[in-house]
């Protein structure tokens, strides 16, 4: 299977799992949400005589009613799965119990259907397909069939509230099937209701009017209510209720009337019949959830209560993958484990030299967040920042995984990445000769009834910096992007400088609804915005863009409720008004001066960086110099020996050469002497030639000897020449070595001088071998991040924001148009068919003004619906260990770079689909087990890819030791005191991953010095049946909180948490006087912290305890929420038998509760 097809199959598999993942419907009433069970003969909550109408509403609020039709227990879905696919051996998570529905729709306060609010449950539809034995057919979960079913359901529900067909006979209901379909039956049900008459229905209505949750207002009032419900509406102006009552009970402007319960039950019966799920799922009821909403939202509703918000985006991405348009980030994320080169992994815990090299000044970004200079990033944080901004941006690591155990500064690390990217874009802005040069190409546009929007695109050099933080919940997304611009996002030492820069701080304060706070408690800059669900998006637009304060908006709504409709007054501090005012009356921006100011700050940082890099280089020289000197000295000694040997050889060769010269000369003399003795003619004749012959013979002998001697001499001469040359070479080499040694010693001396000066200037920020040899000291160090450069880098970040501001003002007219288009998209008023390039240009302008936005995974597809592959620069996924892979697909597809931050040892994704069904779907779509949603998270899939990380010792399900590779870990924990830190580190991280970096508090400065130590309050009281709530534990909690309050602990410093929702409900009913958000499940507390945490364990059976202790994750999160004290309330004898909780019991002293019994 090709890469694109394989990736598409994985996404298709996740899409199918989402089909069977319905959200639970909460049936617990609250202050702003009431739940009623409806019956065909019951008066609905939308009639003005219903007891709900007696509840007082604020003047700017109305009721909105969501109808859930065909309620069925999720337990029945499990039964179907078991029957079809086999038993699920995994223990059933109690959080997966609950109910869902076959369909939902939303009605206005008066009971009229809100358009496009109708939703058919994908789970119900898919279950019907399972029951029809379609899992064995190739198209059993065909997205086209699902789309058709949805469209048919929406069409049918449009008949709700229609008036009876003209000429329809009454009484028996004959002739009501005129259209032969559900529409006719719905109208017939409505007509039945009208024809039944007051007397036939008044009595049953009187007994059921209030519904089971509100109690009964019966008798005459209820009878009157019933009569009004079924009688024809009084003429306008008639009746006791006045115009409002007639409007609520009567028809709408389009002739429709309020929806009658009988219509809803007819719809319910029809859908159950069509889907063929009646026997298997046993859907039996209709619930109505009535909630308070703002007047402006009275006729709009967040649809799709019953289904995954990911459907459309997953389908779009699947098509893109098949078209080989998946992008680098998503392609990397979906890379099979078998294709990952694990041999190249670098363990940062055992490769400290590599880590030190990567945090050198030359690799550290020039910009830094507005944090305190006395609290620089720890080593592991700076390593992650540098790697993200180098390898990730270069494209070699498109998905970068960071493992962030609790309290190790994940958000702090991300803020420095954001600051660095803002500065990088400012550097590019500073290269523009004119601000207008930032725009390239012609403007594109769209038109609506409110006007035409024109967008001019930015040049490519200024794009790719779009930053999106994605989370699993709106609360988490809102928290992180409120923290960035909020008062907690800046160190006090930088407040005055930020005020001088004033990056639209008033608009940011209005956006955070803190404009009336004390100056130091307001926003410091408009650097981030919370998007996600439509309410947050509208607030972002109203507050930041238009400058409408929450107080003024509420006043306008109250006026509207009183009959005086007006637009909320704008404060004048919104970006729209600021840019308009600049265009009309503003002082022209001196762009060269603005650039020069920024450049001066940049040059200062670069100079400081160069000095520290010189020291880093010197440190490397010092570290290497001793070994280099020793090696050179050894080499020099060897060279001296070689010179001596060569000189000896040269001397010997010279001696031989001299002797050869002597022999050669002697031979020449001898032959010359012999030549003089050559016999003359007379002597030759007298000796008959003998003398001549003898002379010649000897002459030849002398000639041969001379020839040989000459040859030997030449050989000796050549050898002497060679040894002489060798001697010269050896001497030159010796000189070179000596010079190198001298240079090395000189460099070492100079490096030592620089090193000593660095130590004197920057002290602990100069990494030393002693520090790096100690794991804890190394991790808590901050190499090269001394106060001077930290301040300069932070100042540069502020100057970068100022340059952005000057650019916005210098191009105010163009940017106002671009931003108006962007805010139209955000608010949902832009046409759905806006061209992708136009929308992308608008978004890019928004990110230039507001660098970071947050969203949930569920909202990503709708928020960025106009954007496609790699149209966004940077994606930061926070709490990725809690995120399902399917949720991140759309965001990753749109991103050029992804940074995954989370912890697989904290809360995991909640998957409601039984394991056996996951396996069946996986096999159907032919994908590997490594993609099972119930076994992985975004974090675990990203960790596989990480080239930098470490191996974590974990226990598998059989209690056997194993090692798991996690992405680059943040190791310095700065939240919890002992024993919470030690418990968390031991149960989840092998006792070694985290290093405690929290500074101890002096006893005389500790506000909690008189509190009892962290402890386990043992309670052995009985439970209420199968409920995990133990009343005796509640009494112990009440006594403990009373004790804490007597010791001066503020209410907002206390949090009470439990693994079980029923325990949380029990605690909430104790009226402890704590803030509403102070009591919750462990799952609601991830990402939060408190000075004092009370962990109420509860549980009535071993199964509940086994579930809570299956992995260390739940306990790890609970323990690591507590900064100063942890008090565990529960039966220690039972809980200490569970893994991980046994370590908790060992670490905490036990206290017997007086409330026990």
UniProtKB/TrEMBL annotation:
InterPro entries for the chain: Coronavir_polyprotein_1ab (IPR050534), DNA2/NAM7-like_C (IPR041679), DNA2/NAM7_AAA_11 (IPR041677), P-loop_NTPase (IPR027417), SF1_C_Upf1 (IPR047187)
Protein name: DNA helicase related protein
Gene3D superfamilies (alphabetical): P-loop containing nucleotide triphosphate hydrolases
Pfam family, one: AAA_12
CDD domains named in the record: SF1_C_Upf1
SUPFAM superfamilies with a match to the protein in the record: P-loop containing nucleoside triphosphate hydrolases
Bias (Gly residues) ranges: 168-183
Domain DNA2/NAM7 helicase-like C-terminal: 973-1132
Disordered: annotated segments: 160-183, 229-259
GO MF annotations in UniProt: ATP binding; DNA helicase activity; hydrolase activity
Keywords: ATP-binding, Helicase, Hydrolase, Nucleotide-binding
DNA2/NAM7 helicase helicase domain ranges (all copies): 753-911
Family as reported in the entry's similarity comment: Belongs to the DNA2/NAM7 helicase family.
Keyword Hydrolase: yes
Species of the source: Catenulispora acidiphila (strain DSM 44928 / JCM 14897 / NBRC 102108 / NRRL B-24433 / ID139908)
